Amino acid sequence: MSEHTEILAKLAERVKAAEGFLDIEGKRAQAATLQEQASAPNLWDDPAKGQEITSRLARIRGEVDRYDALLRRLEDAQAMNELLADAEDADLATELGTAVMALETDVDRLELAALLSGPYDTHDAIATLQAGAGGTESMDWADMLLRMYGRWAERSGFDMEVDEVHYGEEAGIKSATFTVHGTNIYGLLSAERGVHRLVRISPYDAQKRRHTSFASLDVIPALDRSEADEVEVDEADLRIDVYRSSGPGGQGVNTTDSAVRITHSPSGIVVACQNERSQLQNKATAMGILKARLAELERQRREVRMDEIRGERKAVDFGSQIRSYVLAPYQMVKDHRTDEEVGDPQRVLDGDIDRFIEAELRRRASG
Q1: Closest of 219, 212, 214, 223 to residue 191, by C-alpha
Q2: Cα(159)–Cα(145) distance, rounded to whole angstroms?
Q3: Domain boundary at 113, 145, 165, which?
Q4: What is the CATH number of the domain that holds 283?
Q5: Fewest beta carbons less than 10 Å away: which of 27, 34, 69, 317?
Q6: In Å, how far from its chain's centre is CA 251?
């Protein structure tokens, strides 16, 4: 047998184990039941219920389909391995090696999904970046992080929408709110919640001195339609302002007042959306974010331990960082929770952050 025989045997064991802890057979039964409900002629008599059923069906089918596709690829690799036992074939051996490497990566990801067992882990995520101590340096750093998460979403096949940005006077951003859509997004992105620290030679310092900058990421689960309907908001408690979207340096992005800001008086929560769509769409998005934040606030009040859904809030300053990105005098990115370390910061800033997310999820599970 080829050099991959033992690896394939172990992968087969892991995939079989995954079938159990992911409850694939149970999900097949759930999908069948939901499909029957989705086929009912009166499904959309209650739009909220119809949306909930079809969304759950799509999510469960996606999980089952991903498992089935992985199982087929494993069987194909085992078949190639058996062929190589009978005759040497350099091209087939190369193809098998590539297939095995891809299978190892995807089985790791399959097992990682088992770590996402929280009640909101399957939801989309609403994230907010906030520049911390460091002035223009930190605003530029927050902008770099916004790009990093955008690249991560892109390379992972997720959809990311930037809902609101407050630009800095000289460079960068003071804050930004963005929404990411995809499988297990909240569970994944919640591992990035915290303070991120940058050390580099400042491009804004004429004397080329080394500066330390901070920015924080906060993440909450987005609500599905039925959950949003359960969050009651009294219109009398809202102040809704419309204004013209602006870009860096106060430049007008739209020629009409399409951006929307909503202030919820009882909680003091302020949300806005200015992503260049219509005023009506911006208002709907802002209301969705407001309801998600109100729901999160209520969950915090009910939870005995606040960090079960979101970690403890820390000052955006020295000693509070979850991760450090060092560009000078040496090159390194290190996560202080897991000790996961990478010597190529540019690769990380280009969105290659999966290893940090996985390490933190495994740390949480082991704790």
Answers
A1: 219
A2: 17
A3: 113
A4: 3.30.160.20
A5: 69
A6: 30
Q: SS in 3 state form for the chain?
A: CCCCHHHHHHHHHHHHHHHHHCCHHHHHHHHHHHHHHHCCCCHHHCHHHHHHHHHHHHHHHHHHHHHHHHHHHHHHHHHHHHHHHHCCCHHHHHHHHHHHHHHHHHHHHHHHHCCCCCCCCCCCEEEEEEECCCCHHHHHHHHHHHHHHHHHHHHHCCEEEEEEEEECCCCCEEEEEEEEECCCHHHHHHHHCEEEEEEEECCCCCCCCEEEEEEEEEEEECCCHHHHHHCCCCHHHEEEEEECCECHHHCECCCCCCEEEEEECCCCEEEEECCCCCHHHHHHHHHHHHHHHHHHHHHHHHCCCHHHCCCCCCCCCCCCEEEEEECCCCCEEEECCCCCEECCHHHHHCCCCHHHHHHHHHHHHHC
Residue 52 to residue 123: CA distance in whole angstroms: 13
Residue 87 belongs to domain with CATH number: 1.20.58.410
Instruction: Give per-residue pLDDT as tens, 326-357.
Output: 999 999 999 999 999 999 999 999 999 999 99
> Residues 116-160: pLDDT tens digits?
878 889 899 999 999 997 789 999 999 999 999 999 999 988 999
**The last residue of a domain, from among 287, 303, 324:** 287
